[in-house]
Amino acid sequence: MLILKLAFRNLLRHKSRSLLCGLTIMGAFILFSISLGFSDGSYGSLIRMLTDTQSGHVQVHRQGYLERPSLFRHFQLSQEIKQQLNDHPQVQAWTTRIFSSALVFGEKKSSIARLMAVDPDQESQVTRIREKVKAGKFLSDTTDVYNPILIGSHLQKLIQVKVGEEVAFIGQGADGSVANDLFTVVGIVGKGSDDAESRRVYLPLKNAQEFLSLGDRIHEVTIRLDHFNLARKEAESLRNILNNEALDVQPWQVVEEQFYKAMMADQQGNWISQGVIMLIVGLVILITVLMNAFERRHEFGVLLALGTPPGFIFRSIVLEMTLLSGLSVLVGSFFAYGLNWYYSVDGIKLETPLEYGGVVFNQMLSENSMSVLLIPAIFSICVTFLVALYPAIKSARAVPIEAIREN
Amino acid sequence: MSEIVIASKNVSKHFGEGEAQVHALREVDLDINIGDFAAIVGPSGSGKTTLLNILCGLDKVSSGDIQVSGRSLQDMSGSELAKFRREHIGLVFQAYNLIPVLTVMENIEYVMLLQNVPVAERKERVEKFLTEVGLEGKGNRFPVELSGGQQQRVAIARAMVSHPDIILADEPTANLDSETGVLLLDMMRKFNEEFQMTFVFSTHDPQIMERAKRMVTLTDGHIVSDEIK
Ligand SMILES: Nc1ncnc2c1ncn2[C@@H]1O[C@H](COP(=O)(O)OP(=O)(O)OP(=O)(O)O)[C@@H](O)[C@H]1O
Ligand SMILES: [Mg+2]
After folding, report:
1. In terms of CATH architecture, what is B4-228?
2. Has residue A144 got a pLDDT over 70?
3. Whether the complex's predicted ipTM surpasses the cut of 0.85
4. In the Cβ-directed half-sphere of A144, how many Cα atoms lie within 13 Å?
5. Is there a contact between A84 and A58 (Cβ–Cβ < 8 Å)?
6. From the centroid of its chain, how far is CA A160?
7. Residue A181 in contact with partner chain B when CB distance is under 8 A
8. Mean pLDDT computed over B53-75
9. Per residue in A100-130, pLDDT tens?
């Protein structure tokens, strides 16, 4: 191929210039790839944090519950559904929950509190509820305690109770009756900051069903999959398997819509810095192509005079730069892969830990995947291509005698 | 009467506007016939380069017409002109202008590649013309590794190899010492006789003029004489 030969030889003609341009493309590609890796890595940590502590990966509710949660939008988990969940290959674990609110009375003070009822054994397989207990014991670690509860640290301060003390709940039962009972504080959860769990009360599912007159009904099934990436796909699959009009199966992206949207918006900010990297690459390439094209004006004039079609000159310039870019990306891929891999195993330690939504990061981890290589590769090559267009058109359109006269 | 390759009909060419206008060619009528070996001579600035550029469509006429096998160059677009030159014209430049990144062989092959000549035929023709210009065995060298005279011989091989109707050469020997120049011209003359290849070249050198079969003299853009020897 004549055009390939010309492109290659012209690249080799100015070895140091091509090398410099290639190294810039490679450097930017690696930078872009690593920044994507770290961005994926930290969003990954955030998502894991959210799904591991609260939402799980997929949730099942009664239709309409997500839009307007209500004590009365409950459903019964049939034996068949349980079996289907247990049989599903991607489902690691699942648990059931009930939500309500009640007035909580301490010795001296009272407050309104959100109640979250969990199955203590199953819940700890789906979320890290055990790790949230800062004082006292977890629900299932106590015996002979009447109506054990975990109380959020914020709430605990508000109504001034200690582990071992009793509180009274007054709420509404699902049958319309007034629900009231005594509960015993067995542990404190949360760090006292403004997060959801420090304003919440956790209680065993069975006790809640009794307190709220729900029978064996629940509000939510929370499912843990092998990976959060699978959520959308498996939610779809579960929806088909359960095949129940009354039930609403949704991935975490829908369940935690606010979080997901905020994250996507945040992610858009990263594109700006990555755009700047690409802009710099574009400029370096532009300078290189312009230098090459300018120096070779005389030569292009000769080629045109010999009868070379202008399109051939255009293609050879574009090909030359795209080739350089492609090679740089190829070589850069090895480094980028290596670095991303390294930082995904052993992240960058943070001198001062970062806090994001109540979650503390003390190391930044990268995440290695095909897309952290592919996206920067496509961008680098496209930028090269676009930048080469103008000089290529200029050169192809040169007036031969004018170009030949320049020496 | 012999067959006409290129006809220049009442061609005038001026550069610039108003006061600064230069009349490089004035009403030039010139028919180039098949088998011509014509020198365009005249003092510096008389319009030799301008005429050659116009004959191959590298430059446009201000008035008049250039006709090649009944077609007017004036009507052709840029890429049509490129195609026209590729198929009908061989060019030899004063400064050789070989493609520096291609070897001697690849330089000679270049136009044939653009013309999609099959590989076997290409190789055969390249070999043949390498031998004809006395550069056998030097096909894999790059232009910088050759002397000026050798480079110009490659350029002539490049111009001839695609069997053009005519080879136009603007002062092909001006960059060479006169001995080398004369040798080169003798070689061109040999090709003219052996292959009926039509040559039109410009020159200042009386030794070169001597070897022409036809001599067209330009003065101040006019053809003042056109003699066949
Ligand atoms: N691009 C141009 N712009 C303006 N004037 C030009 C241009 N090209 C040629 N001329 C003028 O046209 C006239 C003819 O020039 P041309 O180059 O054809 O002469 P020439 O016979 O080839 O001269 P030389 O022997 O020095 O090569 C000259 O007066 C020259 O200055
Ligand atoms: Mg001249």
Report:
1. 3-Layer(aba) Sandwich (3.40)
2. yes
3. yes
4. 0
5. no
6. 38
7. no
8. 90
9. 999 999 988 999 999 999 999 999 999 988 8
Residue type, A47: I
Answer yes or no: are the C-beta atoms of B186 and B192 closer than 8 Å: no
| Tokens found for residue A150 | 């975990």
Task: Indicate whether A357 pLDDT > 60.
Answer: no
Which is nearest to A377 in space by CA: A20, A64, A25, A1?
A25
Chain B touched by A405 (CB under 8 Å): no
Nearest to B85 among A306, A311, A312 (CB): A306
Nearest CA among B227, B148, B220, B217 for reference residue B183: B148
- Number of CB atoms found within 10 A of residue B28's CB: 24
| Atom 22 of ligand 1: nearest residue by CA position | B49
Residue B22 has pLDDT above 80, yes or no: yes
- The domain locations on chain B are 4-228
DSSP A359: E
β-strand partners of B166: B89, B198
What residues contact A246, with CB distance under 8 A and at least 6 apart?
A: A62, A63, A75
pLDDT at A360 over 80: no
User: Is B165 an interface residue toward A (CB < 8 Å)?
Assistant: no
Which residues of chain A from 6 to 25 reach within 8 Å of chain B, CB to CB?
6, 9-10, 12-13
Q: Which of A1, A14, A296, A306 is the mutation pick for testing B, counting most B CBs within 10 A?
A: A306
Q: Is A142 helix (H, G, I), strand (E, B) or coil?
A: coil
**Coil vs helix vs strand at A104:** strand
Closest A-chain CA to B59: A401
DSSP string, chain B: -PPEEEEEEEEEEEES-GGG-EEEEEEEEEEEETT-EEEEE-STTSSHHHHHHHHTTSS--SEEEEEETTEEGGG--HHHHHHHHHHHEEEE-TT----TTS-HHHHHHHHHHHTT--HHHHHHHHHHHHHHTT-TT-TTS-GGGS-HHHHHHHHHHHHHTT--SEEEEESTTTTS-HHHHHHHHHHHHHHHHHH--EEEEE---HHHHTT-SEEEEEETTEEEEEEE-
Query: What is the spatial distance between Cα A217 and Cα A139, in angstroms, rounded to a whole number?
Result: 20
Closest C-alpha to ligand 1, atom 7: B15
Q: Which positions in chain A touch B78 (Cβ < 8 Å)? A: 310, 397
Ligand 1 atom 25: the closest Cα is on which residue? B44
